[in-house]
Design brief:
Helix content: over 70%
Shape: globular
Number of helices: 8
Strand content: under 5%
Number of strands: 0
Order of helices and strands: HHHHHHHH
Structural class: mainly alpha
Length: about 200
């Protein structure tokens, strides 16, 4: 009988660190030094930078989001004693979204008023948040949490993750309104259900 798949936590964290570092670095490649007719003109340079303001803004916001996701993942992973196959698959899916994030950022930076670009960006953000939450949920179900961590601390962390998903859904309502009212209502209902779920986890 073959042994179940197990991976040391440090192996996964090494991969996670590398992928996040590369993704955060790639973000800056979308920023281009503007070409000026008069290289000595400060006004022309400021005007060119303002013209690329959406790209610059998308870079800084996305870099900050990846930093938050990296810290979040490491806090969750620090509670695990090892990684099984389900956790590894979830982590690989998460890293796939992280690698795709620079493309979504470039798309939004170049076409900030295009609703499709915004939807791609928001969807990737949502999938990263969902996969982070699912990662910890799988760890709980498969008993991968360190024995030294109290059950109430585990449930508090899980409730916080679910609450984060709820906040994201509610924050997406203005974006969903650009599609139609039904999408906005769906985001509101889903956000409310997740808030209710988070409260249930906290009380258990």
């Amino acid at each position: 009988m073959s042994k179940p798949f197990r991976l040391h936590r440090a192996r996964l964290e090494t991969l996670v660190d590398g992928v996040f570092a590369i993704a955060m670095t790639i973000l800056v490649l979308e920023l281009k030094v503007p070409e000026l007719i008069d290289p000595r003109s400060a006004n022309e340079l400021m005007s060119a930078l303002a013209h690329h303001g959406s790209v610059i803004g998308a870079y800084f916001f996305s870099f900050g989001m990846l930093a938050v996701f990296w810290i979040w993942h490491h806090r969750l992973a620090a509670t695990l004693h090892e990684i099984d196959l389900s956790l590894l698959v979830c982590a690989i899916a998460l890293l796939a979204m992280v690698c795709f994030f620079p493309f979504a950022t470039a798309l939004l930076g170049r076409y900030p008023t295009n609703v499709s670009a915004l939807l791609v960006y928001v969807s990737v953000l949502g999938l990263i948040i969902l996969l982070q939450t699912l990662f910890f949920r799988i760890a709980i179900r498969h008993r991968m949490i360190l024995d030294t961590i109290l059950k109430k601390e585990v449930l508090a962390a899980h409730a916080k993750n679910v609450r984060g998903c709820a906040i994201f859904c509610l924050a997406c309502i203005p974006t969903a309104l650009r599609l139609n009212i039904y999408a906005a209502i769906g985001c509101g209902i889903l956000g409310g259900l997740l808030v209710w779920r988070a409260r249930g986890i906290s009380r258990s």
